[in-house]
Each structure stands twice: as structure tokens, then as C-alpha cells.
Amino acid sequence: MKPLAGRVALVAGATRGAGRGVAVSLGEAGATVWCTGRSVAGATPPGRPETIEETAALVTRAGGQGHWLQVDHREPEAVAALASRIGAEHGGLDLLVNDIWGGDALTHWGPLWEHDLDDGLRMMQSGLTTHLITARLLLPLMLEREQALLIEVTDGVGEHYRGSLFFDLVKAATRRLGWALHTELAPRGHTALTVTPGFLRSEAMLDHFGVREDNWREAVSQDAHFAASETPRFLGRGLAALAADPRRSSLGGSVLSSGELGERYGLVDVDGRRPHFGRHAEDTLSDALEALPEAQRARAFADADALSQAVGPHAAPFVGVGGAALLERLRRGDAPRAAVVATVRL
Question: What is the DSSP letter of 163?
């Protein structure tokens, strides 16, 4: 028997990207999966052909039972109707994956005073309010089950600033939601936590680089870090393993990356690789720091700009992740790898 046979899951925001990957992987593990989103045949965003009907069909093809329903999770009435339907057909809900986003087109990289206010507030509604609405209206169904699991999906596990205030706030809030919901659910025997993919080879990212899944490595010449990327199915396989783990409550309230889930459960991506973007970042920056001549280190450790220049363009993006804490450890003489591991989380 498949590990999630008999379990009922809802993936909210299952049209594409991580949501689709999670839904299909839960189906692969035997779950009944409800797939929701706004994109249906004849009504998709410009340039994006994916639909929730396709996702549900992929779930069934993978070995589960896929169902779909067009739902705008910004509208409590629509989410309440979804909850009523799941309750009527299944009597409860074992797993909720909150992956609603829709904020990419609303994000402006730069300071708050240059960010379009309407776009920022819409991002808050799309990426955060929707999660609250969905959790509030589906949790009563989860309380009908034993050891239900609620997953918040965010972007990144670190506390570093993400380059846009509204984006940063939404992603930090979804991390906090996993912890807060676990605080409320744990006394009742249920679990909540937050997860993040690594460098995701989503449909949109493949389009951005002008490649397909079967030739994605050709894009490494455009961005060397793409070599450490992963398919959306990798996070999905991690969540399927987590949902089947009888000891999952020990992870409640935490924030876990797909790479960490992969290591914990011994998983491989659909292409046979074992991606871990956090480990890639640690190795890249540590190697660059260890290669610095001793005579140059004091000057390189003066500030973030000096360190970024010293380690070179390949490792420089990870300097800001470590931030002031990384610089402090390096200045006091910590070994480069120890300093990086202690401060760089992606």
C-alpha cells in the first residue's frame, strides 16, 4: 500500500510551480489531492498556460486521486464553499498545503518609498491574507482527523532582508505562521510547520532562461548557480515523506528547506540528483573565503562591499545572506566554513 493511501490533502495554489510539484508528489504517494487556484482552461494569466485541471490530471496519473476546483482564496465565501465540499465528500482533511502566492508581478525590487503602494498591498492580500483565510476555514476539517498536518510554503529560511519590503514581509510572515499555528495545534495532537524550495526550476524559471526540463543544464552558462536547482517535485517528495512520518510532530513549528527534507528522508529528485541549495551556498562562499590569501583578509573583512568584491561575483550573492553576523565571526578569527555555516541560511 502507498504511504498516503486513504489520506485527503488540499494543495491551495496548485496550478504551477511548487504547488503543482507538491500535489503530484502527494498523488504519487497515494493521496487524494484537491487542487485549487484561479487558473482554469480559458482563464489563465498572460503567458502562463498551466491550469488546475492539468494538475489534478497529473495527480491521478501519478497514482493518486486528483480533484480540482477553481477557488479565489482571497474570497472567504469561495474558500468556505471549498471546505463544505471537502467535508461533505470526505468528512475531514488530513493535510493542508498553503502555497498561494501570485506576487511575482507585484514585486518591485528597491526601497519602500519607490514601491507601488497598490501592488504592495495586493501582494499582502495575495500572499498572506489568503493563507489566513484558508487556514481559518479548513482547520475545523483538520481537527476531525488524527495527527493532521498543515504546511506553510515560503521562499527561503534565512532572516536576511530580501530586497523588497512587501516581499520580505510576506515571506517572513508565512514562516511565522507555521510556528504560530503549531503552537495552537500541538496541544490537540496536530502539526504545523513551514517549508521552502531551493532554486526552483518552475515553469516560469525555465521560460526565463529559455530552456525546457529536458535541457535545463544549458542555462547554467547564464547562471552558474542554476546547476544546483531542483524540480518542483523535489519539495513535493519531501512533503510526502514528511506526511508519512509518524514522528513528524518533532519538527513542528520549524522552517525546513527541500534540501533538508531530502537529507532527512534520503530522497532524490526526479532526475536522480540530490539538490540542496543551502549546502551549495555554504560550499561556494566557504571555498571563496578559504582561497583568500591571509594578507588580504583584514581588508576583505572591512565591510560587506569589500568582502563581496574579494570573494568574486560567483560567491558574492551569499555575502549579504550572512550579513553583519558573518563579518563579525570572520573578524574575530572563526574559520571561514564555520562562520558561513553559522550565518548563511537560504
Answer: S
Report CA torsion sign: 245, 157, 130, 204.
negative
The answer to whether 91 touches 144, Cβ cutoff 8 Å, is yes
- CA atoms of 34 and 44, how far apart (whole Å): 19
Report pLDDT for 1.
86
The CA distances from residue 130 to 43, 79, 135, 169, 180, in Å, are 20, 9, 8, 15, 16
What are the backbone dihedrals phi and psi of residue 152, each rounded to the nearest 5 degrees, phi first?
A: -95, 135
Parse the chain into domains and list their residue ranges: 8-275, 278-343
Asked if residue 337 lies in contact with residue 282, where contact means CB atoms within 8 angstroms, the answer is yes
Residue 290 has a pLDDT of 96
pLDDT of residue 45: 81
Q: Compute φ and ψ for 322, nearest 5 degrees.
A: -70, -35
As a whole number of angstroms, the distance between CA 104 and CA 152 comes to 18
- Give the architecture (CATH level 2) of 8-275: 3-Layer(aba) Sandwich (3.40)
Note the pTM of the prediction, 2 decimals: 0.96
161 backbone dihedrals φ, ψ, rounded to 5°: -70, 140
The residue ranges of the chain whose pLDDT is under 50 are none
Which grid coordinates are listed for 280?
551549495
**Quick check: 282 and 326 in contact, CB under 8 A?**
no
pLDDT at position 47, please? 80
pLDDT of residue 136: 98
How big is the chain, counted in residues? 346
In this structure, the number of other CB atoms found within 10 A of the CB of residue 275 comes to 26
